[in-house]
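Minutes, structural biology subgroup

Action item carried over from last meeting: produce the structure token record for AsmA domain-containing protein (Desulfovibrio subterraneus). EB confirmed the sequence was re-checked against the source entry. Recorded below for completeness.
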Amino acid sequence: MKKLLILVGVLGVIVVGLVVATFMSINPIIEKAVNTAGPKILLTNVHLDKADVSFMSGSGKLQGLVVGSPKGFAAPQTMKLGAVEVKLDTASLTKDVIIIEKVLIASPDLTYEKSGKLDNFTALLNNVQQTVGSGTETGNTAPAKEEAPAESGKGPKVIIRDLLITSAKVNMALTALGGQGMSVTLPDIHLTNIGEESGGATPAEAMQKILGALNGEMTSAVTKALGESVKKLQESVKSASDALKQGDGSGIEKIGEGLKGIMQ
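Output recorded by EB:
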């Protein structure tokens, strides 16, 4: 009887140890996954400072998530997401499809840069589409040289139940203006059940869906803002021209005010 009690006690200690080890290791695993898989999916620098997610509740934050610029663009970063709130279904962490109940990205700083006919978000989306099409993404954290395209589908997939991006501020860096520009706030972007129809999406497929929605809203907002700014400049030029015709020296100031309006 005594030996049985000792055995039960030992098993209890082992179970507790395993639970504690899992609890302690989940955040480093998330950090490593983001910092390793992110660059392979987006084909640019991706860095997460810290993951703080409770294994017991599945709730927490991803802090200091930054996405660099794609090749050919000068801005130091494309996205700075700050703190991203997440809630995971912890029961799914050991399964083939990981369920992410909620993702909330509040007030991210986005940089829209256009050089020639291509903007940086379209370039990022093209990178993700290239990754999805070539099958070079992976769900594990092994070095890239050890991966094979045929194994890309063997990693875990995800279903994101609810994703909300609120108050995203877009800073428009215009190459034609030496990197200077203006800013605009996007309407909220709300996506649900990403990957549900296919029984789970790969991380690249999920990113493609999210980035596609973000790029669509951004293109509309930027086009509208640029159109309004051009209209203001045209009105300033006309006002300045009329003032100069009447001998009013304030015409140049009016043009300056119009240009200032574009920068805001």
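Discussion: The first strand starts at residue 46 and ends at 53.
Next step: EB to file the record with the rest of the batch.
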